[in-house]
Amino acid sequence: MSEAAIAASPLATASEAQLTWLRFRRHRLAMFGLVVMLLLYGIAIFAEFVAPFSPDKSNARLVFHPPQAIHFIDDAPDGWHFRPFVYGYRLARDPKTLAAKYVLDGQRKNYLKFFAHGDSYDLWTLIPGNMHLIGPEDPAQPMFLLGGDRQGRDVLSRIIIGARASLSIGLLGVANSLLLGIIFGGLSGYLGGRVDWFIQRVIEFIISLPTIPIWLALAAALPKDMSPLTKYFCITLIISLIGWTELARVVRGRFLALRSESFVTAAWLDGCSRKRIIFRHMLPSLTSHIIASVTLAIPAMILAETALSFLGVGLQPPAISWGALLKEAQNVESIAAAPWLLLPGAAVAITVLALNFLGDGLRDAADPHAH
Amino acid sequence: MPTDMAGNLNTPVLDVRGLRTHFPLGRITLKAVDDVSFTLRRGRTLCIVGESGSGKSITARSILQIVGPPGRIVAGQMLYSATPGAVPVDIAKLPARGKQMRDLRGREIAMVFQEPMTSLSPIHRVGWQIAEGLLAHGLMDAKSARARAVDLLRQVEIPNPHEAVDRFPFEFSGGMRQRAMIAMALACNPKVLIADEPTTALDVTTQAEILRLIKRLQVENGLAVLFITHDMGVVAQIADDVLVMYRGEVVEQAPVEELFAAPVHPYTIRLLDAAKKLGMAAPPARPNVAMGPVMLQVRDVSLTYPAQASLFRRAKPPTPALRGVSFDLHEGENLGIVGESGSGKTTLGSCLIRVLKPTTGEVRYQHRDGHIVDLAGLDREGLLVAHREIRMIFQDPFASLNPRMTVEQCIGEPLLVGGILEGKPLQMRVRQLLGMVGLPPDVASRYPHAFSGGQRQRIVIARALALDPRLIIADEATSALDVTLRGQILDLLLELQPKLGLSFIFISHDLGVIRYFCNRVAVMYRGEIVEIGSADDICTHPQQAYTKALLAAVPEATPARRSLLAS
Predict the structure, then answer these.
(1) Which of A254, B88, B279, B334 minimizes the number of CB atoms within 10 Å of its CB?
(2) A268 — contact with chain B (CB < 8 Å)?
(3) How far apart are CA B324 and CA B528, in angstroms?
(4) Do the chains contact at B417 and A1, CB–CB below 8 Å?
(5) pLDDT per residue of chain B (567 residues) written in tens, 0 to 9
(6) Among all residues of chain A, which has the CA nearest to that of B411?
(7) Do residue B446 and residue A12 have CB atoms under 8 angstroms apart?
(8) Chain B residues 423-442 with a CB less than 8 Å from chain A
């Protein structure tokens, strides 16, 4: 390298965050994960609008209605049009067993339209509205893109509304964990010595506890008459009580590694106070690692919520979350009759995978020399 | 053992023609090795020399086809002839994972790597690792392979080879590990030995031993040696032929005497000048200056790491890192502290600036205004004042700048937190400091990653100068830099010294650098100063046996005087 030539490319003035973003963009799978997650969180935020129906609208005559495929091209006698529709189903009886079953009715087309007016809702309990992204032209006609459940409710709408609880519990839980993790991990890593020893032993104790029974016990101890919202926050807290230990260890490890870097010694020799060393010199170098760890911690939170609700101690109906929805698929008979009840599980899997891809990409981008 | 070696000496064993190894990196292609040709001959040593990033290691790895992805050999021939006159095999044509290539690796062409700490497997016994090649190539059964391992350990002069064969690498010192690595490389009687900076991580005295060992084994076995190094002193001592690489290309290739006597390419000339400037034969840069008043009195400083006991471990005896160190530093003087790794020189530097607190002893420092403080006993407030006058330069320019702060923020930090300057005047001062260290002022808004090692070290110097200090402690400040940059940084410091009225404590393992930069030198060994005196005296008339051994081990950059291998 010649001494005189100083890199003159636009990269020269790029900050570390910009470089991380450049590296992240090259990670295809992670970009894919990012797009999926943005989409999912977007759906969760505008859930009432995206969902075609109210999640609680039940119809005793449409129990376990099978999923209907959308057709976009309408082959009418006067030529074809772009006009989405679904074929209707008829309820018929098996002549031998007399069991009720749905039969596809090729003659009946239920036309759909975008921005259809349907069930009314209050978006974020604030803005009243009745417009839905997609819905039947005639609100009275059924449309079950992902089938119906035991009470004839639309599974798709319920998954979309459930995303709000499941995805936000991940974020809130991680926010709690992060707060605890940074405080205890930071103290442990920066102070070292006895404080470190004590905090590490506490963490080891918490990690050694069998999680599911503890969660069950804590969740069971919650009063039965709690409002769904309070219960939601309590569940978040319970989940993050265990989750913070991992983050604390990551933060501690990074602090320990950074403490011996010579630029931290240099900052001390420059006369920086302890506060300034931590917040100006050490934490900025930690942020990208912390973001990556947090992204990788969200899936665990989401899975924990799903597990708790599935076991019946997390969010309870009428509250809707993916775990609570999966509860419907707890017995073999309902799965045999309506396998689409398992679809909330697919939503969980997609979310967890996308977050893992995203987190891996962030981690690689934050620390390109880690391998 | 080959007995007809004498007749075969100087016959070519590996003929590399037009080798090109490229790394496609997205839109650009890094030409790590670009049209390199050379011939390795039996019983001769070819040195590839160049600065970091010149492609010397990639050349060596290309021969064994162990270039990491995305690197690829895109052109060239590597003709290997196992015996003189045999039909040569073109290694470049062999599939990298094929049997033929695997048969060549280790058995015909063996390699010794730079880092002895990481190139041996930590969970296998040394003897097993040496024997592994023999077993993998199906040359011996387990029993005779073990006997061969013992024999090899004896050849590489490891004491008690019968016991050493069952030891684990962590029980070996760095030098012993490198010997074990060499034993491993020689296990299958290869024809070619590739040594990639095998002594760079070692102390000079150990380096001399390893170089002597390689030479002896070469003579005994008629090996062709490809030796990669950045140290012109080592080249002068061991090479028969030299190949100078610069940015992937061969810029000059000549027999060693010729190259040193009459270098042709400007880069070679620059490299040799830099090596000679910091060599032991050069006239010292600094005459002994008239000494100013004493500014720093170090008295009986010791540092003992306390015994560490834990629940399951009995307390180890306390380890002394420094034992009764005393010296004076005069104003305007450059004091060098030289020693090998583990001698306590860095610990001493940390004690002087109070990053570490000495267990006992005094470090009396006289401030600019005349009042004297004992740095060893000072509290944080006192240190804040003292640290404005005593500054530090660190070894690794990549670790000593905060990657999240711009150059301006890095340099301005001490002024800002000291409440001395802010806003516009701070900006002006930073630009002035950048000018002082020879960087254009418009780089202030860039982040450290945009700079090379030498430029970063200039930024670190600018930060040290920001508070207008009197004393700078430089801990291996030039060790991470290439030799041509080393001289430039030293000259920059020497140029600034009279202008700014600076004194230096310069810590280094490199006697050449110390001799060039310092008026006086303290030689450290096992936590003690064994000898202290003027730089010239220490280098020409050393009194202590250790100093003599240290000096004798320094490879001199004159091929005419090959003292290193003789002793």
Answers:
(1) B88
(2) yes
(3) 7
(4) no
(5) 444 445 577 889 999 999 999 988 777 888 889 999 999 999 999 999 988 888 898 999 999 998 888 888 999 999 998 888 788 889 888 888 888 888 888 889 999 988 777 888 888 888 899 998 888 888 888 889 999 999 889 888 888 888 888 888 888 888 888 888 888 888 888 999 999 988 887 888 888 888 998 898 899 888 999 999 988 999 999 999 999 999 889 999 999 999 999 999 999 999 998 888 888 877 766 666 667 889 999 999 999 877 665 555 566 667 788 999 999 999 989 999 998 888 889 899 999 999 888 999 999 999 988 889 999 888 888 899 999 999 999 888 888 898 888 899 999 999 999 888 888 999 999 999 999 998 988 888 888 888 888 889 999 999 999 999 999 999 988 888 888 888 889 999 999 999 999 999 999 998 889 989 998 999 999 899 999 998 888 888 899 999 999 988 888 888 877 777 765
(6) A270
(7) yes
(8) 439-440
CB count, 10 Å around CB of B69?
Answer: 7
Q: What angle do CA B178, B138, B84 make, to 5 degrees?
A: 75
User: B220: helix, coil or strand?
Assistant: helix
Q: Is the pTM of this model over 0.90?
A: no
Task: Using DSSP bridges, classify how beta strands B192-196 and B224-229 pair: parallel, antiparallel or unpaired.
Answer: parallel
* Calpha distance B524→B298 (Å, rounded): 15
Nearest Cα residue to B389 out of B358, B360, B336, B352: B352
Assign B327 to helix, strand or coil: strand
The residue among B405, B445, B456 with the most chain A CBs within 10 A of its CB, best to mutate, is B405
* Residue ranges of chain A assigned to CATH 1.10.3720.10: 30-45+159-366
Residue found under tokens 């320094």: B554
* B127: nearest Cα among B178, B83, B165, B79: B165
A272 touches chain B (CB under 8 A): yes
Distance, in Å, from the CA atom of A64 to the CA atom of A336, rounded to the nearest integer, reads: 11
Domains of chain B with bracketed CATH:
10-277 (3.40.50.300), 294-305+318-566 (3.40.50.300)
- The stretches of chain A forming alpha helices (DSSP H) are 16-25, 28-45, 47-50, 155-191, 193-208, 211-221, 228-259, 262-269, 274-276, 283-310, 322-326, 332-337, 343-366
> By the CB < 8 Å criterion, does A261 face chain B?
yes
The count of CB pairs under 8 A between chains A and B is 84
Closest to B136 measured CA to CA, from B80, B91, B187: B187
Interface predicted TM-score (ipTM):
0.80
> Whole-angstrom Cα distance, residue B488 to residue B454?
9
Q: What is the sign of the dihedral through the CA atoms of A322, A325, A327 and A333?
A: negative
First-last CA distance in chain A:
26
B205 close to B549: Cβ distance less than 8 angstroms: yes
**Quick one: B189 exposed, middle or buried, by C-beta within 10 A (0-12, 13-18, 19+)?**
middle
In chain A, whose CA is at the least distance from the CA of B439?
A4
Of B395, B399, B451, the CB nearest to A263: B399
Residues B278-290 as b/e (b if ≥16 CB within 10 A, e otherwise) read bbbeeebbbeeee
| Contacts of residue A195, Cβ cutoff 8 Å, sequence gap at least 6 | A187, A188
Q: Give the Cβ contact number of residue A66 at 10 Å.
A: 15
Q: Which CATH number fits domain A30-45+159-366: 3.30.70.141, 3.40.50.300, 1.10.3720.10, 2.60.40.10?
A: 1.10.3720.10
3-state secondary structure of B551: helix
Copy the structure tokens of residue B212. Answer: 């002597």
What would the two tokens of residue B284 be? 């010292």
A11 inside 8 A of chain B by CB:
yes
